[in-house]
């Protein structure tokens, strides 16, 4: 095989693969050095096809999407950006999910960061290919590429001649890769900002094999794992003699305080699992929800025990001189993520020293690192096939279920797929932490906030505040404290970590402050922003103008304060670099408050895909609303009291309000959208409820806080 | 071993697996039809919905012995080319987010529309509310049911 060398010093190269006969344009999505001006063996390229945007002589264009798809639409949005700059129609493109490869950077789904991170890289990748096509056409027509234009996968000459990209592949092979290519002017975007359907729709709608749970590999066994039923228990002993007599059961093994039942079919395993006798013993505290309430109270009441996250001015003085002090506690429970598809993972630890992994994961790289360490197998001997995921919400940022599968495979020396039942999943930990906040606000006689004190106590929440977020910067005297209590109950990031409950508490509290200050809640916020703008106090994490613009758009679209017979609640939050403001509306129906509508305004910069963006707003608001209303995981002696959808309530179709999604159109570089619409939702609906009934909702889930809430939906 | 005879998407399957095996697991692991999904296993979420003689049932709690000889239709058999009006409407309105719940949702919608092409908002909610979509695609599902009705 000949070596093909990229002359480019950038992380972009092209190479011709004799095998495929096509032009393969590779781009590293980070600019890892892996591809910088490196000689590449085309046969290897053909092998590791996944890092590339490829164009074949028959005009087939393939774009690989490296980031895990959990329903956030990345598999449609990423390729759209490449296709936009490449200047092709989206239906000319085939999109494929790339597996884990060190050719890509940040191959994870979390923090709503993918689009923001990759925006420039994806555009450059597409634009470089486009310019190369123009160069190739210029050579064929013996003209300068500056005279040429492109459209729909064609290069066009001034006199109307056309050549398709496929026709130009052969010529392009011999050319140097252009550098410093010009990106499109956003006003010329043809795809970005349009309405595009999910690229996986045809397969999803036909029920094709797509998800991790659907995987079936050669010689594969199934397994389920019995983990400690309560947090704080560990395995003492087990007796599998009866289970082993059951049909289809191959092995029962224990590792890591767990007992794995390995067999042929899931149903047989489920039956045998009931027959395994397991003794557990106490290892740590077996906490109940009452213990948590006591912990919250103790730590909130005890002064000076929090970690000071931010301190501006003199808070003591501000409260001593206050004309009025407002104070309130807000509490949120543990929540499981409970994606529709429960955890599952396939692993095959092979005799030849390699490991094959496949399954749904938001962080394939982390799984590989952990498994490499546990089994002492070099990371480059471990492959991961990324499957589509039936939701994630942060649950699949955990690598535990992948590690567990690999661990099991290494013990039984067989390829195995471990599938969790919904009960396993809901009682499996990695929860949103439970948190209680105490807010205090000092007001002067004119209703200005002169002091603000937030103290949060979280159970395995780490820092349960976001100290530099609004209203920090707008208040002279501010104290933010966080206490982390270590509990045996395991926690992890849950869609919009921390802010998904912090924002509710804070936005509900601000509403209470507005009431005490006799100010309109929107006006109160705008005054604070004005203050922060003219004379900011310390560091702030948000952009005041963008925040204000978003708030104004929501207020305008909702005709804030101008509607008759409708009570409105306002909330606005900045997270994941995006701004979302929401107005929730309540109507009285037969004297009962009913949540009729949520109007959302979002600034996430340029919207890549209208359909995907609207889906994320609808979905996040439904998620935020549903969990604020009903989500509760309580504990008795370390054991979760809710284990499946019969007791763990998820919002349903008959309970959703109308939702309006509006976007600020400011042409700024795009930011995250998978999470930012969740944080404001709880506050907006709590405030609307308060406006309608006079009652404030201090604790989630709201349906347990006030029985009127049941009629609210 | 007792044999069970099943008719799935027009095809006959003779099987000796435990007659107590829920249809869901038979479909997924024995008939290799994985479009029908496991979501809860206790008839709470609807992800496993298939048709039995045209009516939506929860396959996760239905032993194969009790559906023997009935006409079972799964998402794979809803249409030959994935172009049932419900599938078309779901695509047109870009309903799926993660997509995991949608096979079940579509099976219920198809059964509803066969009886009633113009369901009211309330009728749609009554039919569809037994289904959980953790991604929150309910707004578009509602619209898609209406649109599919118009296409039928
Ligand atoms: S899996 Fe059957 S209803 Fe949930
Ligand atoms: S689309 Fe994800 S659960 Fe419905």
Automatic annotation (TrEMBL), chain A:
Q: Where is the Aldehyde oxidase/xanthine dehydrogenase a/b hammerhead domain?
A: 206-284
What sections of the sequence does the record tag as coiled-coil?
A: none
The source's domain of life comes to: Bacteria
Q: Which InterPro entries match?
A: Ald_Oxase/Xan_DH_a/b, AldOxase/xan_DH_MoCoBD1, AldOxase/xan_DH_MoCoBD2, AldOxase/xan_DH_Mopterin-bd_sf, N-heterocyclic_Hydroxylase, OxRdtase_Mopterin-bd_su_IorB, TAT_signal
Q: Which GO terms describe its molecular function?
A: oxidoreductase activity
* Protein name per its UniProtKB record: Isoquinoline 1-oxidoreductase
TrEMBL record, chain B:
Molecular function terms in GO for this entry? 2 iron, 2 sulfur cluster binding; metal ion binding; oxidoreductase activity
Record keywords: 2Fe-2S, Iron, Iron-sulfur, Metal-binding, Oxidoreductase
Q: Which PROSITE patterns match?
A: 2FE2S_FER_1 (PS00197), 2FE2S_FER_2 (PS51085)
State the InterPro entries in the record: 2Fe-2S-bd (IPR002888), 2Fe-2S-bd_dom_sf (IPR036884), 2Fe-2S_ferredoxin-like_sf (IPR036010), 2Fe-2S_ferredoxin-type (IPR001041), 2Fe2S_fd_BS (IPR006058), Beta-grasp_dom_sf (IPR012675), Diverse_Oxidoreductases (IPR051452)
Extract the Gene3D superfamilies matched here: 3.10.20.30, [2Fe-2S]-binding domain
Q: Which residues form the 2Fe-2S ferredoxin-type domain?
A: 2-78
Question: What is the protein's given name?
Answer: (2Fe-2S)-binding protein
Which organism does this sequence originate in? Jiulongibacter sediminis
